[in-house]
Design a protein that fits this description.
Beta Polymerase, domain 2, 7-stranded mixed sheet, two-stranded antiparallel ribbon, 6 helices, 9 strands, 42% helix
Length: 217
C-alpha cells in the first residue's frame, strides 16, 4: 500500500542530497554550465510516498540555464558530464554509482554491507523552451525509427503554470485533495500498470492539474 512518509524521516536524506547536488552545480560552473537543482514534486510538498515499509526516494530537477554550444549540440555529452560529476559527488556521501534511466539519473544508498536499498534520489536534467514549458532530457535507449541511444528534449505535459495553479488550490483550502489524488495516482501507476519509472514530479503535476480542472475550469 502506498503511504506518505513522515517528514522527520525525509530531513536527513534531503541534507545529503543537497550537499551532493551543490557540489555538482559548482563543478558544472567550472565547465561553463549554469545550473540549479530543485527538489520537486512530492518532496517539495511533504508528500513523499513509499510502498509499505520499503525504501523511498526524492526527485530533483537539475535545470540548465546556460551552457556552451558543445553541450547543446551533443546531449549525450551533456548527460554524461552530469552523470560523471554526480557520481564523484555522490560517492562522498556513500551513494553508489548512478543508474542511467530514460528520464533521469538515480543514485542509490544501500544499507551497510547489504544489497538492500535504503534510499535513492532521482535527478532529471531539464531546461525550458521559449514559452517557459519544462523540457526533460530523455535517453531513448530503444527509439523506434530513430535508432538506439537517442538523446532529445521532451516537453513535460501540462507543466506550464503548475506553481500558480497549486497556489490557487492551497488558497481555496483544497490541498488535501491534491495529496489524495497524488497517492491514488502513485498507487495506480505502481499497482495496476507496474510503471516504476513514472517520475514523481510528473505525477505531482498530474495531481495538481486534475484538482485544478475539477474546481476551477
Amino acid at each position: 500500500m502506498i503511504r506518505i512518509v513522515d517528514e522527520a524521516e525525509c530531513k536527513r536524506y534531503r541534507s545529503d542530497c543537497s550537499i551532493t547536488l551543490k557540489k555538482v552545480c559548482t563543478e558544472l560552473k567550472r565547465k561553463g554550465i549554469t545550473a540549479q537543482f530543485t527538489l520537486v514534486g512530492s518532496g517539495a510538498r511533504n508528500m513523499v510516498t513509499r510502498n509499505g515499509n520499503g525504501p523511498f526516494d526524492l526527485d530533483y530537477n537539475l535545470e540548465i540555464f546556460k551552457a556552451p554550444n558543445e553541450y547543446w549540440n551533443n546531449l549525450r555529452h551533456m548527460k554524461n558530464t552530469v552523470r560523471i560529476l554526480l557520481d564523484d559527488a555522490a560517492g562522498l556521501q556513500c551513494f553508489s554509482e548512478s543508474k542511467d534511466s530514460t528520464s533521469c539519473l538515480t543514485a542509490l544508498l544501500h544499507f551497510k554491507d547489504e544489497p538492500t536499498i535504503e534510499f535513492s534520489f532521482d535527478v532529471a536534467i531539464v531546461t525550458r523552451n521559449s514559452d517557459g514549458t519544462l523540457c526533460r532530457l530523455m535517453h531513448n535507449k530503444n527509439a523506434w525509427g530513430y535508432g538506439s541511444n537517442q538523446y532529445v528534449w521532451n516537453e513535460v505535459p501540462h507543466s506550464r503554470n503548475v506553481t500558480i495553479k497549486a497556489k490557487q488550490i492551497k488558497a481555496a483550502g483544497l490541498w488535501l485533495d491534491v495529496r489524495n489524488q497524488y497517492v491514488n495516482l502513485k498507487e495506480m501507476y505502481l499497482s495496476r500498470w507496474w510503471d516504476i519509472d513514472h517520475p514523481s514530479f510528473v505525477v505531482y503535476i498530474e495531481a495538481v492539474n486534475n484538482v485544478y480542472n475539477q474546481y476551477f475550469v
